[in-house]
Design goal:
This is SUKH-4 immunity protein of toxin-antitoxin system. By secondary structure, the chain is α+β, with helices and mostly antiparallel strands. It contains 27 helices and 16 strands. It has a five-stranded mixed sheet with strand order 1-2-5-4-3. It has a five-stranded antiparallel sheet with strand order 8-9-10-11-12. The chain has a two-stranded antiparallel sheet with strand order 6-7. 46% of the residues are buried.
Length: 685
């Protein structure tokens, strides 16, 4: 059985650095992605791949189902829904998929399934020994363990409240619209349990479909910002869990792809490398000398073998392998696993390289101007040059795969007048604006220009990082652009933490404390422990003693030309120092208390929330009329918590409350001088 840490597709586990390889069992690896019991998983993968690929008709129905589930569940907490999208486990087979749904989620599933049925058509279902068998767009989906009586009862409850069925035209158009990502959607549903992996550190899950350059893309916004990397790559799952093609892979001209890329990068700006090995070295930022040229030639051959293998067709998903190189830039939103995934074929490449590894490693150090720094006083190298050489080989393979898996509709890059940089633009529909890409000799930048962006940030730079070459900058920029448009829905103003694209709030929005919490990503919820960690600091940073009715932020009346507003109440200071979205002078929430509908609306618009204990404390602290300083407001907040029904407050939070927090709340001191000692006892120890 697999024990933590699980074997991942990273260098340390792939090449078994400093330890013996850990033995794993196929059934245990499979259940990592499916959630099945070990015995069932072992039985299901005795022959063939660990997770079989659905045939084409089956994949279309599964894609339609996951598409509907994304709309139904949106941002949600698997701990509260019994699993991602209410799914306990899946058993994927070539011509069907078995899904066990949490019983209490059955009404949401019936509503979801009914909405996928075209107007005038009936949902096709039957009762089997294992459960309820559904037919969705020619796909067979079996809800294991669901009885006929439970299914009928759920349908009766949801038919009256569910949205109207889609028209037949809309249904057909949706299937056609999803066509480019049908294999990706089906493969994701078949590996949905990876969303519960330890590398997915957030207790919230959010997958969504949005357009990029006119085509649908699947994004994973679980970490609070969208990533286009497929789930199995994002958590660095072993190659055995990667989906294969249900038909032979299409031949890819790796060398031609690199040649075209270099031509674009150097058009009018340099000389095209005639030898593809030399071009790959230039692309990867590796010096082109006989030893590295041999390595590049081998990397090209391995890349061709990998891309001809149907097991690795998902290298093209999410815009191609270039996103993997963006993981090396320490961008938190690119993938769940911090360490970069080792590409398929890496073992073959390292084993087949017959050159001098130590010399290749020293050459790499020399190129990075780190060779002399790596020498000890005795003249010996501190660095593991063989490992560095191995990294160079993998880097060459990475860039070969990145160039070959580039989008089939590349961008039109043009040189800037009077500059050596290249530019490319494309429209984005949500928000309505322009994607602007820039590639220079050793860096790239991607920005979004849209009039709908708030907080005076009509032009927002999404990514701006270094690159080993201009050609690499092109690949990285195109990869970053894939997420740039949809990312504007998650980007916050650095001054007040407000979303640049506030979320719509209407009559259907749940503005209860629980509703606002459930709609917020985990890292955007201000919990009592967060407040406790800041109380002693707020005491010295909260310069104002004004109450809420005077405004949390106010413009300076004495300086009418100053367009900015400044903190004026204790809640304004909390917004600044604790990272909750700030209000603007003139907004209804700017004079509202935290427990008011106006303030909860403000939080909902900016994808944030406060737990009920924080709300109780800050409401009392903010409404004191005769407070002289922060200490007075702190005493009011503590008194309110002491007088409150804590169990009732806990019930208004849909998440489980740690008993340690409840105990700490009952012991919070009135005297602000005792805050630090209290915090150490209940939260640090």
């Amino acid at each position: 059985m697999i024990t933590a840490p699980r074997p991942r597709r990273i260098d340390r586990d792939v090449f078994h650095e400093d330890e013996e390889p850990q033995r794993t069992y196929p059934g245990d690896v499979r259940r990592w992605a499916t959630g099945e019991p070990y015995r069932l998983a072992r039985e299901e993968c005795q022959e063939g791949p660990l997770i079989p690929t659905a045939v084409e008709t089956q994949a279309r129905g599964e894609a339609l189902l996951l598409d509907a589930l994304l709309s139904e569940y949106g941002l949600h907490r698997p701990a509260l829904t019994g699993g991602p999208f209410g799914i306990i486990m899946v058993t994927p087979r070539t011509h069907e998929i078995l899904i066990r749904v949490t019983p209490r989620q059955l009404p949401r599933w019936t509503a979801t399934v009914l909405r996928t049925v075209p107007t005038g058509a009936a949902l096709v279902w039957s009762t089997e020994e294992r459960g309820i068998a559904l037919t969705l767009a020619e796909a067979r989906v079996v809800l294991v363990g669901t009885t006929e009586s439970d299914w009928r009862a759920a349908i009766d409850r949801t038919e009256r409240s569910a949205g109207q069925p889609v028209s037949a035209r809309a249904h057909d158009d949706r299937i056609g619209y999803l066509a480019p990502i049908v294999p990706l959607l089906s493969a994701t549903l078949r590996r949905v349990h990876l969303l519960t992996d330890s590398e997915v550190s957030s207790p919230t899950v959010e997958l969504l479909i949005a357009e990029h350059r006119g085509e649908p893309c699947l994004y994973d916004a679980t970490s609070g910002a969208p990533s286009a990397i497929p789930l199995w790559q994002s958590v660095a799952a072993p190659l055995e869990l990667w989906p294969s093609a249900y038909r032979s892979a299409t031949a890819v001209d790796v060398r031609g792809a690199i040649g075209r890329l270099m031509s674009e990068a150097d058009d009018g700006l340099g000389v095209l490398a005639q030898d593809v090995s030399e071009a790959l070295c230039k692309l990867a930022g590796v010096p082109a000398v006989p030893l590295t040229l041999r390595a590049a030639q081998l990397a090209l051959s391995v890349a061709e073998e990998v891309l001809a293998d149907p097991r690795f067709v998902s290298l093209f998903d999410g815009g191609g392998w270039a996103a993997k190189r963006r993981r090396d830039l320490d961008l938190a939103w690119v993938a769940h696993t911090e360490e970069a995934v080792t590409p398929p074929g890496a073992e073959r490449l390292v084993e087949a390289f017959t050159g001098d590894l130590d010399m290749l490693g020293m050459l790499t150090l020399s190129e990075e101007h780190a060779l002399t720094d790596s020498l000890t006083a005795a003249g010996e190298l501190e660095e593991d040059v063989s490992a560095i050489a191995q990294g160079t080989l993998i880097r060459l393979l990475d860039w070969a795969l990145a160039a070959a898996t580039r989008s089939a509709t590349p961008w039109a890059w043009c040189p800037s007048e009077g500059s050596k940089s290249l530019h490319s633009n494309a429209p984005t529909s949500d928000p309505d604006g322009i994607l602007q890409l820039k590639a220079e000799a050793n860096s790239f930048a991607v920005s979004v220009t849209a009039p709908s962006l708030r907080e005076s940030q009509y032009v927002h730079t999404w990514e701006e990082c270094d690159a080993p070459s201009r050609a690499a900058a092109i690949l990285l920029a195109e990869s970053a652009a894939r997420t740039a448009g949809i990312a504007m829905h998650y980007v916050r103003d650095p001054q007040k933490g407000r979303l640049l694209l506030p979320r719509p709030v209407d009559q259907r929005t749940d503005l209860t404390t629980a509703g606002v919490i459930l709609a917020a990503h985990a890292d955007a919820i201000f919990d009592f422990e967060d407040l406790a960690s800041m109380l002693s600091r707020l005491r010295y940073r909260a310069d104002t003693a004004a109450n809420a009715s005077e405004g949390h932020w106010r413009r300076q009346a004495a300086v009418p030309d100053d367009p900015h507003d400044y903190t004026h109440s204790v809640l304004g200071d909390v917004q600044v120092w604790c990272g909750t979205p700030g209000t603007h002078d003139g907004e209804p929430a700017n004079t509202a208390l935290p427990d008011s509908p106006e303030y909860r609306r403000h939080l909902a618009q900016h994808g944030a929330a406060m737990d009920p204990f924080v709300t109780c404390y800050l409401t009392a602290a903010a409404e004191v009329e005769d407070a002289k300083d922060f200490d007075d407001r702190h005493r009011a907040g503590v008194t309110a918590l002491r007088n409150a029904d804590l169990e009732h407050l806990a019930d208004s939070d849909p998440r489980p409350i740690d008993q340690r927090v409840m105990t700490a709340i009952t012991a919070i001191p009135l005297d602000a001088n005792e805050i630090e000692a209290w915090y150490e006892v209940y939260f640090e120890e």
